[in-house]
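Input (structure):
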């Protein structure tokens, strides 16, 4: 019982409300104990008698009116001079002397005065036109606590306190639901089948409730979106790896079977079969190495050997490495560098891998007679290296996925050599991020493509 957040919130509100009402009830009871209903009734009677005396004294002597009122209403009437000397007392000789009551500082206190014997009297005091003081008094009524509780306190609590308690508990229930229901929806969503079934789709939880609960709901929705994206990426990754491995494995299996069953019976055919098996296994080996690279970069365990890198020398080395391929493809490659480029603290081998991938990608899509340009310059506190070609360019849809793993802008090239599996740009992206840099692409159909790598000059 009371294990859920909603029930505990409701119980907390209920205890607070009951405590507050109990304090109010105690204060009210003490107030009634000090000024019960019978006192108030007596006080009202004294005020009324005083009013009658004042009205009748306009036509009759005050002493006669006072004596008559005292007998009729069973009260004590006193008259004091301006200097507080007793002039008239209808109970003279019957009761102890009563001093002139002082004016009350707090109007809500009980008008109470004690005589010479200590007996308490309730009174009503009024100053007359001749500056004398008229006092109408009556002994303070004696009441029991039981009578006070049953006559004054209990009806008031039953009528008002019970209604207030019910309304307060209802409001507490509404507030507890306002806080707990959004959390309950998050719990239900967290237990949804999509956590166990990758193909299911989870809908975001409505953002409601207090600010903190809304923040929690937004964080949960963001987490769900990331998990879904991760599941989708994993499914695509498995499917792509399976597809990429299927082609070389099929070739290896087919040509090895040809050697085993004697179909490749001539030395030339056996050599050709062995060459295909060797090439396809080498391709699979490269793909596995690339996948291991990506896994290490993703997990942050890739070894980066940081040292001072002279970017002009690195870029010239990359361009010279592609000289035979560019000559054969009829493509011109040019390196243009800003003067006095600063050295860069980075992993030179990894950066060479990045620019090798970018130049290799540009070479694949640059037509004969085209050119590849490599530019390097300083932009504020970053070094910008651009690899540009004048090929066919890419659509915005292709640019949005160009750094995705296994994505290929030209499906006809799927299964090609080198980084034909679509991992080269993904690896380049991860390496640049590992250097706290960023990589982007600018392209348009018929306008060529430019990859821009920004690397920080200062260590972050």
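Output (sequence):
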């Amino acid at each position: 019982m009371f294990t859920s957040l909603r029930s505990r919130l409701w119980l907390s509100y209920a205890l607070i409300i009951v405590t507050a009402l109990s304090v109010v009830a105690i204060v009210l009871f003490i107030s009634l104990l000090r000024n019960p209903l019978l006192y108030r009734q007596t006080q009202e009677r004294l005020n009324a008698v005083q009013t009658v005396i004042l009205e009748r004294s306009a036509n009759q002597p005050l002493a006669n009116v006072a004596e008559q009122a005292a007998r009729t209403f069973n009260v004590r009437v006193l008259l004091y001079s301006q200097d507080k000397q007793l002039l008239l007392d209808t109970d003279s000789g019957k009761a102890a002397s009563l001093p002139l009551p002082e004016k009350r500082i707090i109007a809500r206190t009980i008008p109470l005065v004690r005589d010479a014997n200590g007996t308490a009297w309730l009174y009503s005091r009024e100053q007359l036109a001749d500056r004398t003081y008229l006092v109408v008094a009556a002994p303070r009524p004696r009441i029991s606590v039981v009578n006070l509780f049953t006559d004054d306190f209990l009806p008031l609590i039953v009528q008002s306190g019970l209604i207030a308690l019910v309304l307060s508990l209802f409001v507490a229930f509404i507030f507890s639901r306002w806080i707990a229901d959004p959390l309950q929806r998050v719990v239900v969503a967290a237990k949804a089948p999509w956590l166990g079934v990758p193909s299911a789709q989870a809908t975001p939880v409505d953002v409601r409730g207090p600010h903190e609960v809304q923040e929690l709901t937004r964080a949960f929705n963001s987490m769900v979106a990331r998990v879904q994206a991760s599941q989708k990426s994993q499914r695509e990754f498995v499917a792509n790896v399976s597809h990429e491995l299927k082609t070389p494995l099929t070739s290896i299996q087919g040509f090895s079977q040809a050697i085993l069953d004697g179909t490749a019976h001539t030395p030339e055919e056996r050599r050709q079969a062995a060459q295909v098996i060797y090439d396809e296994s080498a391709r699979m080996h490269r793909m596995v190495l690339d996948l291991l690279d990506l896994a290490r970069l993703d997990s942050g365990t890739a070894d980066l050997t940081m040292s001072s890198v002279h970017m002009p020398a690195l870029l010239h080395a990359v361009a010279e490495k592609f000289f035979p391929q560019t000559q054969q493809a009829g493509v011109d490659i040019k390196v243009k560098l800003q003067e006095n480029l600063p050295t860069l603290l980075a992993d030179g081998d990894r950066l060479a891998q990045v620019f090798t991938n970018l130049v290799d990608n540009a070479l694949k899509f640059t037509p004969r007679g085209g050119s590849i340009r490599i530019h390097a310059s300083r932009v504020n506190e970053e070094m910008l290296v651009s690899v540009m070609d004048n090929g066919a360019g890419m659509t915005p849809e292709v640019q949005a996925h160009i750094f995705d793993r296994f994505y290929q802008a030209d499906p006809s090239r799927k299964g090609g050599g080198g980084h034909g599996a679509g991992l080269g740009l993904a690896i380049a992206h991860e390496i640049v991020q590992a250097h706290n840099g960023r990589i982007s692409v600018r392209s348009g159909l018929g306008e060529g493509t430019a990859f821009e790598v920004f690397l920080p000059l200062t260590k972050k």
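Notes: The domain at 37-142 is CATH 3.30.450 (Beta-Lactamase). The chain has eleven helices and twelve strands.
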